[in-house]
Design brief:
By secondary structure, the chain is an alpha+beta fold. The chain is built from three helices and two strands, in the order ααβαβ. The protein has a two-stranded parallel ribbon.
Length: 108
């Protein structure tokens, strides 16, 4: 009986780990598609303006998905190679927390 319980526990652990490894990537690929594939055409005027600007993006949830941002990806909006291609000077990566959902312990 004890051996059976250990086997069931191990099976549950394997299923949970497989779920946690597989599902985030599948959700990421499904929810963060790149609709139009490169190369992207930009006018000469747009390219000149882009060269004069300092580009900053203040929101990216890329860290949620656990992918290697150093590798160019075929899905999602942000990875380091594409940031470099776009001359992005500042990128802010965010991670949501449950802090706002937890009632404050401070009184008054």
């Amino acid at each position: 009986m004890r051996r059976r319980s250990v086997q069931i526990a191990l099976l549950v652990i394997v299923i949970v780990v497989a779920f946690l490894v597989t599902i985030p990537r599948l959700v990421d690929e499904q929810q963060n598609k790149v609709v139009k594939k490169p190369p992207y055409a930009a006018s000469g005027r747009a390219l000149n303006l882009h060269k004069e600007l300092t580009i900053a993006d203040f929101h990216a949830d890329s860290l949620l998905w656990g992918r290697d941002l150093l590798e160019r990806s075929t899905y999602g909006q942000v990875d380091i190679p594409r940031l470099a291609d776009g001359s992005v000077a500042l990128q802010v990566f965010l991670l949501p927390t449950l802090e706002a959902a937890i009632p404050s312990r401070r009184s008054g």
